[in-house]
Write a structure and sequence with these properties.
The structure is a single chain. The protein is an alpha+beta fold. Helix 4 crosses helix 5 and helix 6 crosses helix 8. The strands form three sheets. The protein has a four-stranded antiparallel sheet with strand order 3-2-10-6, covered by helices on one side. Strands 7-8-5-9 form a four-stranded mixed sheet. A two-stranded antiparallel sheet has the order 1-4. The chain starts with 6 loop residues before the first strand and ends in a 7-residue tail after the last helix. It has a domain of 215 residues. Strand 7 and strand 8 form a beta hairpin. The chain is globular, with a radius of gyration of 20 Å. It contains 13 helices and ten strands.
Length: 311
């Protein structure tokens, strides 16, 4: 029982570490409570108890197509391990953490095809694995059920419709199915590698990039221009190859490199932290979060009524 992981992070710990200060602390803006918290331990955030735990029946269903396509996976996938998904993500995070660390020191490794496939897979899973995503699906399902009941449909009809939209087993099962839908994974890999130009970006201004507990959403929404920050001063930028596409940033690349202006950082933060997106926390450096709230007209009023907690 000592190997059981109770507190499971849906946002990798290594990722939040990139936004910590020199004392390994991070600043949080809690949108639900409207408060800033300084000097926080990042390990206390983006975590849920037993979040990915499931049973052998569901695991078998999730990986049924995988083992047909890749029979050798039978020796790796342990359907009797109810925490197999948590362990799976731990292995993925170890690999991607090493790759991101390498990219920070040598950005040219970004253009290796195997590295791009690993990044594509990481972004795909990160878009679907979070608590905000599950909660949004749960809200949608509850709204759907309420509408069906208002129409006085019988239970069999409601069940059939639920099965047709893939929500018959609830939000968690739907989320896990999306996470391990091999066709969707391959489609995303092809799309992001063939329809986008990949850049690495440096921030030289005093205003840095922020992130959230749902940071990869713009990737699966197929934005023409989206930013995935690795630190307040370094990001991966994906721009559509469509010659008619309009971009969030007007900065001109120098080869594969972008130097982000103050305006670009401001606009990328706004795009990634769009007010209607499902996320609970904004993470970053103290000065950057305060600047973001003061610059953003939608959130500006929140800054006036913040309950600032420095503990």
């Amino acid at each position: 029982m000592s190997n059981i992981v109770k507190n499971q992070h849906y946002l990798p710990k290594f990722y939040l570490k990139g936004f910590c200060d020199q004392e390994s602390k991070i600043t949080i803006f809690d949108r639900e409570r409207g408060e800033i918290r300084f000097n926080q331990n990042p390990q206390k955030y983006a975590v849920e108890r037993y979040f990915y735990d499931t049973d052998s029946k569901e695991l078998k269903k999730l990986f049924e197509k995988w083992v047909i396509l890749y029979p050798k996976l039978c020796n790796i996938i342990n359907i009797d391990d109810k925490q197999f998904i948590e362990h799976f993500f731990n292995r993925l995070e170890t690999d991607i953490a090493k790759l991101f660390e390498t990219i920070l020191n040598d950005p040219d490794v970004l253009y290796d095809q195997k590295n791009q496939s690993l990044i594509a897979y990481f972004l795909y899973t990160l878009a679907y694995r979070t608590a905000p995503y599950r909660n949004s699906m749960d809200d949608s399902y509850n709204q759907f059920m309420s509408q069906m009941k208002e129409r006085n449909l019988d239970e069999n009809m409601i069940k059939k419709i639920s099965e047709d939209i893939g929500m018959s087993s609830g939000a968690k099962s739907y989320q896990l199915e999306k996470l391990f839908d091999i066709d969707s994974i391959n489609d995303f890999d092809y799309f992001i590698k063939n329809n986008y130009s990949w850049y690495y970006a440096i921030v030289e201004d005093t205003y840095g990039l922020l992130t959230s507990d749902n940071p990869a959403l713009n990737g699966i929404l197929h934005f023409n221009d989206f930013c995935f920050p690795l630190t307040p001063n370094f990001a991966l930028i994906f721009r559509s190859k469509d010659p008619n596409a309009k971009f969030i940033s007007q900065d001109i690349p120098h080869g594969n490199k972008l130097i982000l202006s103050f305006e670009s950082v401001l606009q990328y933060n706004r795009a990634n932290l769009f007010i209607n997106y499902p996320y609970k926390y904004i993470f970053g450096q103290k000065r950057d979060i305060i600047k973001y709230l003061s610059f953003n007209s939608i959130e500006k009023e929140l800054l006036k009524i913040l309950n600032v907690n420095k503990h």
